[in-house]
Amino acid sequence: MFAFHESLSRVDLAFTDRHGGESTGPWASLNLGAGNGDDEATVRRNVAAAVRALGADPSDAHLMRQVHGADVRVVASGAPPAAHPEADALVTARPGAVLVVRVADCLPLVLADDDAGVVGVAHAGRKGVVLDVATATVEAMRDLGARRITAWIGPRICGRCYEVPEQMRADVAGRLPVAWSQTSWDTPALDLAAAAAEQLDKAGVHVVDLADDLAVCTYEGETDFYSYRRQGVQSGRLAGLVRVRP
Question: Which domain of life is it from (predicted)?
Answer without folding.
Answer: Bacteria
